[in-house]
From TrEMBL, chains A, B:
NCBIfam families, sorted: recR
Cross-referenced SMART domains: TOPRIM
Protein's job: May play a role in DNA repair. It seems to be involved in an RecBC-independent recombinational process of DNA repair. It may act with RecF and RecO.
Domain of life: Bacteria
Recorded family membership: Belongs to the RecR family.
Ribonucleoprotein keyword on record: no
Protein name: Recombination protein RecR
HAMAP family referenced in this protein's UniProt entry, alphabetically: RecR
ZnF (C4-type) intervals: 57-72
This protein's record includes keyword Glycoprotein: no
Pfam family, one: RecR_HhH
Toprim domain segment(s): 80-175
Length: 198, 198
């Protein structure tokens, strides 16, 4: 005896979510079917809508429904400063906790040759193109303080120097081995203002 | 600056899943948008399909696409034995690890007055109706060994006795305070065969 086909399918599908194993998927499916049917429909609709309309910003790779994200489309944001981060969550953390008024580049990952993630997968041809226009004076490296984050920062630093842009790395406060998005507000703010050229 | 409306909606919707907080919802949304777009569509379709066609079995409350679940529809399953469990996962665990060939009743919860979960919420009028037909000779109580699970077992035992059905409680092996679905196969099998009248 097994669960019915529709229930088996739902449990299986929930496992596409990161960190969700067989037991959690089962618990999630039961919960939605028993207590959150309206919420479940809302989730299905939100997923479909997000997948249909969310793309990457043409200039910075942030998720957006438009060709350009709100920041890249905002002419009051300084195009001479480009902060390079690993994830969209990092953009949000910096926006909420610092007074940075430049632009971003979102790698959507970090260099990891073992996992087949190289410069192309991080969209670095788009960043190269932006740098080649000659308007960027400073590239601020805000990748995580992990081994791969540091290797990625090094790679982007070399790329920036090839285009005669200054390079800085956010410095104080990000704990070694830590992920940027989990740093508290004060620490992140300090790390940002304490950046130094490398 | 905030995430785009479709992304904000998706992150918000993912929080209907149990155990998913703001950070996990964000991570799940990014993961689906970056790496699992096909999987995300599969999840949306599976959710919609499950919500559209999965109901509760008329006799035992198990999830099913049909009026009766596979077990209740199976005439070779003994209708004189009814095993009462808290969740559909418990049915699966018993089916996979014991040779029980009777039927079930799935409470979809346990008595919890503080949370507003009383006999009606556990569908006990359906069980009463089944007992009143006079065909049930033994009700096997397989609710969890928690305070609420024991109180629920006690309530169902009284109900069974009112209808002159024998009552037993699975006994050995289920650790006190433990949830049934996490018990290993051998322990559960032993607990089942070692049940005794109460
Ligand atoms: Zn952008
Ligand atoms: Zn049934």
């Amino acid at each position: 005896m097994a669960f019915s086909p529709a229930l088996t399918g739902l449990i299986d599908a929930l496992r596409v979510l990161p960190g969700v194993g067989a037991k959690s998927a089962q618990r999630m499916a039961f919960h939605v079917l028993q207590r959150e049917r309206e919420g479940g429909r809302y989730l299905a609709r939100s997923l479909e809508q997000a997948l249909a309309c969310i793309q990457h910003c043409r200039d910075c790779r942030m998720f957006t429904e438009n060709e350009l994200c709100d920041i890249c489309a905002n002419e009051r944001r300084d195009p001479a400063l480009v902060c390079v981060v690993e994830s969209p969550a990092d953009v949000m953390a910096i926006e909420q906790n610092t007074d940075f008024r430049g632009r971003y580049f979102v790698l959507l990952g970090r260099l990891s040759p073992i996992d087949g993630i190289g410069p192309a997968e991080l969209g670095l041809d788009i960043l190269r193109e932006r740098l080649s226009r000659g308007l960027v004076t400073e590239v601020i490296l805000a990748t995580g303080a992990t081994v791969e984050g540091e290797a990625t920062a090094q790679y982007v630093a070399d790329l920036a120097r090839q285009h005669n842009a200054g390079v800085s790395r956010i410095a104080h406060g990000v704990p070694v081995g830590g992920e940027l998005e989990y740093v508290d507000a004060g620490t992140l703010s300090q790390a940002f203002s304490g950046r130094r050229p490398i």
